[in-house]
Model the fold of this input.
Amino acid sequence: MTISPEAPARGMDLLRFATAGSVDDGKSTLIGRLLYDSKAIFEDQLEAVEATSRSRGDEYTNLALLTDGLRAEREQGITIDVAYRYFATPRRKFIIADTPGHIQYTRNMVTGASTADLALILVDARKGLLEQSRRHAFLCSLLRVPHLVLCVNKMDLVDYSQEVFEKIADEFTAFAAKLEAPDLTVIPISALKGDNIVSRSENMPWYDGPSLLHHLEHVHIASDRNLVDVRFPVQYVIRPQSTVVSDYRGYAGQVASGVLKPGDEVMVLPSGFTSTISSIETADGPVDEAFPPMSVTIRLADEIDIARGDLICRPHNQPTVAQDIEAMVCWMDESRPLTVGGKYAIKHTTRSARAIVRGIQYRLDVNTLHRDECADGLSLNEIGRVRLRTTVPLLADEYRRNRTTGGFVIIDETTNRTVGAGMIIEAS
Done:
């Protein structure tokens, strides 16, 4: 089954995963191997890679060349954008967020990993755990990525040594335990040779775990979704200007969490009015229930004043309505740092507000986890705990409970550029 990388099959289970690792760890080769072995590249792409490999004098088809264009884009100064690649197998479709791991690209990794279900962290078997390996793991835990996979790469260069693998696995497992990583899998691989990528390697009979692709196909992600707290940010009010359906009023958006069904009692925030759901509709027609990440239109039994930025929830399970928030902020602007007293625009779900920085509690060193409580600002790629005051209340949850209603972006009003990303720790 071969599926175009630009058009993954509809109706299949989707896994988003991010990759992290330095150039020397073989990240590009791993991505190329997954694309090649899953037949997610076109023949002309493979022929071009083979021709380039021959012209460079390589003795093998250098699959890392499949992502060389992405690396070139980063070198040309892409700021927030992350390169995405698509492929699919008969069991599942995948979106790879190609996120660089160097410290100067922290903003890129935060962007790509913020929506990931799983993160692949590559480690060179010859070098073992490095400072940046720990940094990647910390950023993934900060972003609440539910599943981590440590790929100990280049096992062919250490003679497929079980001792080398177990030493790295034990060291990383001990470090991940401090970060409260919910699910960790460690796999010995050789991206260049294809060992344990698609099928189990005969070169490592001592390893009895799954291959990487088998794990990606079977990792359970359905329970990662928050199906308890109903959160439906209203994106658009549908009111057709037609005499045939003059009484139609629907509220369109994407379900952030929870399960919605016709007949359910709901509350609209910030007004506090309650009603019941009369119907839930999609582009394919009415449905009996809606759950994340479905995009639907909800109709209510009562006429309530609802606008973009409002939120539909359960009457007895509401988010915090707050103007004072504390959040971990990753600063992404290279021209001006975040400073106390700075004024910015905030985009939180479908709600927009203006905000002022009331204080910086500390700046976090992502390498040592040291907290600098004397910090007076955040420069490019720095992360810190920040207090903000917004002009209008945000309808927020803690990021650790809900990544959608707990996250926001900070926008420079003068340039309209996204300059920061925040994860809410506390709202009051």
